[in-house]
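Colleagues,

For the teaching module next term, I've prepared a clean inverse folding example: a structure given as C-alpha cells, and then the sequence designed for it. I'd like students to try predicting residues themselves before seeing the answer, so please don't circulate the second half yet.
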C-alpha cells in the first residue's frame, strides 16, 4: 500500500505539468523557428502569448534601428 500511493500521486501530477512558452528572441522569432515553436505549443493561449511576445520583440528591434540624418545647412 505504501508503494502505491506515491505511484498514483506521480501519475496524477504528470497531467498537471504546464507547458512553457519559449522566450522571444532573434533566434526563436525567426520565421522557421517561429513556425516550429508554434507547432509544438498545444494550448491556444500559449500560441497567442508567444506570437504577441515575438511581435513585441520585433517592434522593439525596429525602434532601435535608426540612422542619424543631419539637418540641411540651408535651413539655418
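(Answer key — instructors only)
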Amino acid at each position: 500500500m505504501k508503494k502505491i500511493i506515491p505511484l498514483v500521486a506521480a501519475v496524477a501530477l504528470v497531467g498537471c505539468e504546464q507547458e512553457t512558452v519559449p522566450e522571444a528572441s532573434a533566434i526563436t522569432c525567426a520565421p522557421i523557428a517561429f513556425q516550429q515553436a508554434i507547432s509544438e505549443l498545444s494550448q491556444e493561449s500559449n500560441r497567442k502569448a508567444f506570437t504577441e511576445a515575438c511581435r513585441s520583440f520585433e517592434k522593439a528591434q525596429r525602434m532601435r534601428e535608426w540612422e542619424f540624418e543631419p539637418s540641411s545647412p540651408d535651413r539655418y
